[in-house]
Amino acid sequence: VSLVVAFALILVFFDRMQRALWSLPGWLGGRWRERRDTAGHRALTLGLMAVSAGEPIEACKQAARARRLLHAPQLTGLLSAQAAHLAGDHAAARRYFTALTNNRDFAFLGQIGLMRLAIDAKDAPAALAAGGKALDLKPQSAMAAAQLLQLHADQQNWTAALEAIAIVIKEQ
Under 8 Å CB-to-CB from 36, ≥6 apart: which residues? Predict the structure, then answer.
């Protein structure tokens, strides 16, 4: 009986060792992915903080790090667009904002970014087009309507300005 119990314990021990060895690669891979995701989200957070603080070099650095670590092209693209815009790289910002417009969830943010780029470039027709698309995506956006109101007023298009005023007033 002692030999049978000892043999059973040895069998259980080797079975547990085999299972542990077989599951080790998956466990290590999961830990590696978890650490990578944590580092990516940290880079994304630090990048957003750098954009808010107006630090273009740090924002670009953290945006590149977040893009490398995370598989979330919309979030990292938004950070990259903001960082490029802050750094004055309007061509890169335009590429990132345009890429965002292709995603249904981020299209509004992409259009707002394109509108701001056009305003910075003093390109009123492009700003009006992007602002109009943004307002089509979110018809109750007071921020987009306020920007369009200013653009329409600058061009003395009072009919369109009145429509924008109605949205701004409704949201306040």
Answer: 69
Which tokens belong to 150?
């200013």
What is the average pLDDT across 46-69? 95
* Tokens, residue 163: 């429509």
Packing angle of the helix pair 124-137, 107-120 (nearest 10 deg): 160
pTM: 0.73
Helix (H, G, I), strand (E, B) or coil at 37: helix
* pLDDT band of 99, cuts 50, 70, 90: very high
Q: In 70-106, which residue ranges form alpha helices assigned H by DSSP?
A: 73-87, 90-101
**C-alpha pair distances (Å), 4 with each of 10, 15, 130:** 10, 16, 79
